[in-house]
Amino acid sequence: KSTDFTPVPKVIPVLLKIELITKPSIPVADKELYRSFLVYCFNQWSKDIANALDAIFTYPQIKRLSIDNKFKLSATPTELTLKQWIAIFSYFSSTTTSEKRSLISG
Hints:
47% of the residues lie in helices and 0% in strands.
């Protein structure tokens, strides 16, 4: 709160906590695949995440991902959290065929 400081600042104070990650959320070997996956999803000219993912996953898969990871199908890609993106990518990397993977590496 601004009142925690003397003199009271004319700006809104914020605190940022940065922690060193000892184990990456994405395996280092999958770094480029993860990057390509994100680029693909963000570059789809669609209004929501369901449409951005529809060439990669079936509708039931997208719906299950949204329920399990607590995001709306109408959410835009920028509205998803890092944790949600990691969960979607983990599902992608463990279940998709090479044909689907080739879609994102164009």
